[in-house]
Amino acid sequence: MRPLKGDEERPIFFIGMPRSGTSLMFAAFAAHRDLAWFSQYMDQFPGIPGMELVTRLTALAPSSRKSVARHGEARSLADRMRISPSEAYNVWRRCCGLEFERGYLLDTPASPHASECVRRRVRRTMRLQGKPRFAAKLTGPGRIGYLSSIFPRARFVNVIRDPRAVVDSLLRVPFWRETFRLHEPAWQGGLRDEEVLAWKRAGTPEALAAVQWRAVLRTTREEAAQLAAGSYEEVRYEDFIGEPRATLERMFEFAALPDDSNAHAFVESRLDVRDLSAGWRRRLSQDQIAVIEDLAGPGSTW
To answer: How far is CA 209 from the centre of its chain?
Structure first.
């Protein structure tokens, strides 16, 4: 396995349950001038060498960078073509297989082939984008052990949002509402027997989403406990909404990155940082809220 050099060994991974605000927060974080990342074009064309060069446009012309779309928000064709960070599961799938996006991968290190493939893609992305550090966003299970087997010095930012807001959002987005995820677990290998029983007793989509919110947070924290000190940080979506500048500065400090005016300017000019968390109070019934609060666990963990 070819060793990585310098800061190539210290990627920063944003993790968290889908609909937790990871896209908004990572878009702000990834605007840092020192960071390379996978774009939606790399996700769409993972087999084309050099596609990483497209992202260089965001440094030359900041307006070429897409802001984060809100649920249900109409976008023009020109806006949809702008460049944005992507989870790029097509890239990860080519290296790590379908199990990477379908499972918790607890106690599962990456194979030598998968590890070298990921490291090669990260190295090439950094080189072609001309950046000294790499960052990525991956929602769902934390996969901390798996990713740490590839990058032992990686750092992880776990984005946490009120589970009532997360469940409400999941029930409304097509990738959840219009797929098997409404009635079956989205990922395999992480739910405890008692969590499965609790979901089946309630028998509702919000119960399934709530137990998965709890399982993702629980397993992520369990894996994080095995990391070296200073490798894991939790950031709450509500804190970012309330104080985006201070929260962004805190994330840069954790990642050992200098503060960056480019990132703050992107937040101020391109991101619509609004508190959308109150909507669940209108849309969810009292019975639904009670189920979510019961199955997501003690409110002190939120």
So the answer is: 17
Tens of pLDDT, residue by residue over 183-210, are 999 999 999 999 999 999 999 999 999 9
In 3D space, the residue among 152, 159, 146, 160 whose CA is nearest the CA of residue 231 turns out to be 152
Measure the N-to-C terminal CA separation of the chain; round to a whole number of Å.
Answer: 40
Adjacency order of strands within the sheet including 12-16: 35-36, 133-139, 12-16, 155-160, 232-236
Cα–Cα distance measured from residue 59 to residue 29, given in angstroms and rounded to the nearest whole number: 14
- 3-state per-residue secondary structure call for 44-92: HCCCCCCHHHHHHHHHHCHHHECCCCCCCCCCCHHHHCCECECCCHHHH
Cα(11)–Cα(33) distance, integer angstroms: 15
C-beta neighbour count of 28 within 10 angstroms: 24
CA 302 to chain centre: 17
Cα–Cα dist 94/74, whole Å: 31
Report the alpha-carbon distance of residue 184 to residue 208 in Å, rounded.
8
Question: pLDDT per residue over 124-136, tens digit each?
Answer: 999 999 999 999 9
Beta strands in the chain (DSSP E): 12-16, 35-36, 133-139, 155-160, 232-236
**Which residue ranges form the domains of the chain, and what is each CATH number?**
6-164+229-279 (3.40.50.300)
The C-alpha atoms of residue 90 and residue 97 are separated, in whole angstroms, by 9
> Beta partners for 65?
83
